[in-house]
Amino acid sequence: IEWPKNHDEPNGLRQTECPMRPNEQSNYALPNENTPKIRNIEKIQFGQHLIDTWYFSPYPNEYSQCRIIYICEFCLCHFSCEKQLRRHAKKCTIRHPPGNEIYRDDNVSFFEIDGRRQLKYCRNLALLSKLFLDHKDLKYDIDEKNCETNYNLSCILTLPQHQRKGYGRLLISFSYELSKIEGQIGTPERPLSDLGLTSYYSYWQEAILDICMEAAQNKRELSIEEISVRTSIDTDDVISTLHFLNAFREYKRHIAIVLDHRLIALYKEIKARKKLTIAENRFDPRYKKNVLIVGFAEEN
Fold this sequence. Notes:
DNA repair, Wheat Germ Agglutinin (Isolectin 2), domain 1, DNA damage, Arc Repressor Mutant, subunit A, elongated, chromatin regulator, alpha/beta, 10 strands, transferase
């Protein structure tokens, strides 16, 4: 394995740069300097689901006296009583997120939403998400569309009624498929929560071992940069994942990746797990490189 340029060898990595198991403390999720705010909404009614909330969200002050707020599952508008929601439902014409559908298979659809054009929807989405996210500072401001960072994902959330079904990992996988289409190397925005880091670790592990196993079977050399290019995973994330897997060994004064019986058994176990996957041929054929930069077609 050729060691990437401008990187220290794995022995020089800090422990906090390596993915951690769920029961280990992570230094990625740094505490907010501000005093934590008390949860202001107890429950939300979302479609057929009555959901307990987890954290504070900056809904308007008039909602702080409501034990339950009612949210339209289509446009995400919020109401203080069920009667208001029913009245709204008779007039609401939205039946899917207000954007371009860029992917569909038998299980899921993905929509690309322009925050500049769908400001209200994105604000409602941010308010809803903050009820279940502690380590993110969600705000009304819409960040610039063409960001110079290499983040391919800033924030993901699976609502409680749909958790433990593989959707979090599917969202991570989708973000890297977008990076591949755009020809970019990506990494998630930090800090990551323990749960987020565990989900990323699960994805990185399989994606990286796929490439390593292929190279080993074909008895050919493989560099960290090649792994990064083929997976669109940032080289730092590749290194830290392999370091966590204890895959690095010194060989003839060089650093090599060794796929021992332990890693081979782990790889077989990973591939045997049932999981939701992204099919490359299910993307909208109009969705090509730089479509996010070009923007949306004008509505008729």
